[in-house]
Amino acid sequence: MALVSFTTLAYIRIAFFTLVSYYLIFDPKTVFDYDGVIVLSSAMKLPLLLVNEDSPIYGTIGVVLFMGIISDLVPLLEDNRQYYEAVIPTKLLIFFCLAAYSYL
What we know:
Blueprint: H1 6-26, H2 28-32, H3 35-43, H4 57-77, H5 81-103
């Protein structure tokens, strides 16, 4: 038996993205002042972002992220495993292609 089930991991992922989208909508400065983001950007030799509190882009990203959360939460609550068997490999393929493109 697995240590952590698929549904538990899905709920953890949904909770994490809900927290990030909440902070992006209401207080984006907390996301960019997080130490993990600063370490990751310095390791990739990227400049640190100066957050403009009045910029609507952070709220827009938060709303788009929240819509992705809803699209994952509804099939999970209905116990629709076929959705995840079809969508998760597709999402992984897209994200791996994006990561390979970014790396190259």
